[in-house]
Design goal:
The chain has 249 residues and is mainly alpha-helical. Helix content is 69%, strand content 0%. It has two domains: 3-137, no CATH class; 145-238, no CATH class. The longest helix is centred in the last third of the chain and has 23 residues, at 216-238.
Length: 249
């Protein structure tokens, strides 16, 4: 199971009683938490009793409320385990299922809360949304620093022995692509496949603009390098690694 889906499961467990959409929180670990903390959190929140303890502390639940909420949490955990093992769903389908499960649990729990607890629930939800908004730009998928135009032109120059004139012509191409790349991670109108397609389109457009600027010898070397990158990426996918890998130029 991918790390993204594991984080998604954590989000479901943690936020189901806060009433916040999981699609808006997936893939982004809480600020300031590393892999060890996330692993610990996954372990804790996969246990219904530990989740109930967290909810009791956060919302000041009574023992009667805990007893009535327990079967809701247990049922949700069972559904999460089924979803985790369902290999027939793609990422978007799994996301929809998780959203539906999250909403159902949130609605069922909310009915058992007092008005004061519901107000606190709404306050927590608002704070999570605010933190999510602040950290959205840092979520996985942001353009790595090594793909800035300045660093890429240096690598291209070293690899292809670009002349100063070639560098001057290629630099605006890289800058234009970089500007478009930076908008992809924060564009919530794209699903994963659409984002992948857009990334591939940008790569192809950039390559088609760069190739005419190169000499035949440079074009050959450039193509060979790209083919090696594509082959390496295919091998990683066959080995079980998932996620979208950017093709360096």
């Amino acid at each position: 199971m991918s790390n993204s889906f594991k984080c998604f499961i954590v989000a479901s467990a943690l936020l189901s009683f806060y009433g916040i959409s999981l699609a808006e929180t997936m893939q982004q670990p809480p600020a300031g938490r590393g892999p060890a903390a996330m692993k610990k959190q996954r372990s804790e929140l996969s246990n219904p009793e530990k989740r109930l303890a967290l909810m009791k502390q956060t919302l000041s639940l009574t023992d009667d409320q805990v007893a009535r909420i327990r079967p809701i949490i247990v049922a949700e955990q069972a559904e999460l385990e089924k979803l985790r093992g369902d290999s027939t769903l793609n990422r978007d389908q799994r996301r929809v299922k998780l959203q539906e499960l999250n909403k159902g649990t949130s609605d069922n729990v909310r009915e058992l809360l007092t008005p004061e607890q519901q107000t606190k629930q709404d306050s927590i939800k608002a704070k999570i949304a605010e933190n999510r908004s602040k950290t959205r730009g840092a979520r996985p998928g942001a353009v790595p620093v090594e793909f800035t135009p300045e660093k890429r032109i240096v690598r291209l120059t070293e690899h292809l022995a670009l002349t100063l004139e070639q560098q001057d012509k290629i630099m605006p191409i890289l800058q234009d692509e970089y500007t478009q790349l930076k908008t992809l991670p924060g564009n919530d109108t794209y699903n994963r496949d659409q984002r992948r397609a857009k990334l591939q389109q940008l790569t192809q457009e950039t390559n088609s603009k760069i190739m005419p600027i190169l000499t035949p010898e440079q074009q050959k070397k450039y193509k060979e390098t790209r083919e090696k990158i594509i082959d390496r990426r295919s091998q990683k996918k066959r080995g079980g690694e998932k996620g979208l890998e950017r093709e360096p130029k």
